[in-house]
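Quiz preparation item.
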């Protein structure tokens, strides 16, 4: 049994990241310095070191995301859980807001009438925000598929995609759509992810500015 470690509340996060760094070192894993804050925060959120080897970043992904945030980009999530987990006050200091349309009554009504998912309608709503948007998808692979279909139709091109939906149905293929695209992305390969992971990535990007 591990010994109880007495740590001041204000030092818990710092100590957690020290432990993560130590264990990565013991595993012989060296993270890219630019990507390190994001990957470590995902590990911190999940206590899952698999993310050290499955996180994927497009070329200059961190720099592109940082520039978007600095210039007031909004973030659109596919769950209110992810929205709740993002540091909105810090994002607002750069001029951005966080949106989630999934629980809107008119979105639900339209999705039912069209016999599509709420994620599909939500992405269509987000495409009409008329400002740069970072999409943070942690739950619905349909959201990623819908974004890709909008892009293929030539009606909308995402500025940046965080694609970390979790699950078994269409999750891997949906992620691969963007892994093979030219859209800037941060994506976790495989089935793992979740709303907490999407929020963690957003916060890591915001905090590292």
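Solution:
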């Amino acid at each position: 049994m591990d010994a109880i470690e007495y740590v001041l509340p204000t030092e818990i996060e710092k100590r957690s990241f020290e432990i993560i760094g130590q264990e990565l070192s013991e595993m012989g894993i060296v993270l890219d310095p630019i990507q390190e804050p994001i990957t470590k925060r995902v590990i911190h959120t999940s206590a899952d070191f698999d993310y050290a080897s499955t996180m994927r970043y497009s070329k200059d992904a961190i720099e592109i995301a940082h520039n978007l945030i600095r210039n007031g980009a909004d973030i659109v999530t596919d769950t209110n859980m992810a929205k709740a987990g993002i540091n909105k006050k810090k994002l607002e200091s750069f001029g951005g807001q966080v949106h989630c349309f999934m629980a809107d009554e008119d979105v639900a009504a339209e999705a039912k009438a069209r016999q599509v998912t709420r994620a599909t309608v939500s992405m269509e709503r987000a495409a009409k925000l008329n400002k740069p948007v970072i999409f943070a998808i942690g739950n619905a692979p349909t959201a990623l598929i819908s974004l890709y279909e909008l892009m293929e139709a030539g009606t909308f091109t995402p500025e940046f995609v965080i694609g970390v939906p979790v699950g078994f149905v269409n999750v891997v293929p949906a992620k691969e759509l963007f892994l093979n695209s030219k859209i800037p992305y941060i994506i976790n390969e495989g089935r793992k992810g979740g709303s907490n992971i999407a929020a963690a990535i957003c916060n890591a990007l915001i905090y590292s500015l």
